[in-house]
Amino acid sequence: GEEVEEESLMMARLDAGLFTLQQAALIIGHLWALGDAGLRKRVLAVMHQKGAPLSLVRAVVLEYYHTIGTDGPGGAEEAARLRARAAEAAVALGASDEDLVVEDGGAGVIKAEPGVKEEGTK
After folding, report:
1. What pLDDT, in 10s, does the model give residues 103-112?
2. Which segments of the protein form a coiled coil according to its record (predicted)?
3. Cα 118 from chain centroid?
4. Element (H or E) spanning 38, and its range?
């Protein structure tokens, strides 16, 4: 059915490098969350060199957040831990509460500092 097709598509995307991209986006998000102005300037400079806006990193982190399942070795507890870390990075990158709503009711909404502007470092 449609669910099997979606799962096959996700597995193909992961095989093509999606997991690595998601992990890199999470690292960038966590660096951004530190709030260091110099570090943020450097992140923005590198992103600009690559022609990639910070919103792209946020989108990748949010996709990761929404695809975390509870089927893994750690079950629901591990999924909640991974979602909390991803939510922290996503919020630091400017994600809204609405962006963090999970269909299955798994994670809930995590509050953090207000959104981030892409152009500056403040």
Report:
1. 754 444 333 3
2. none
3. 16
4. helix 37-49
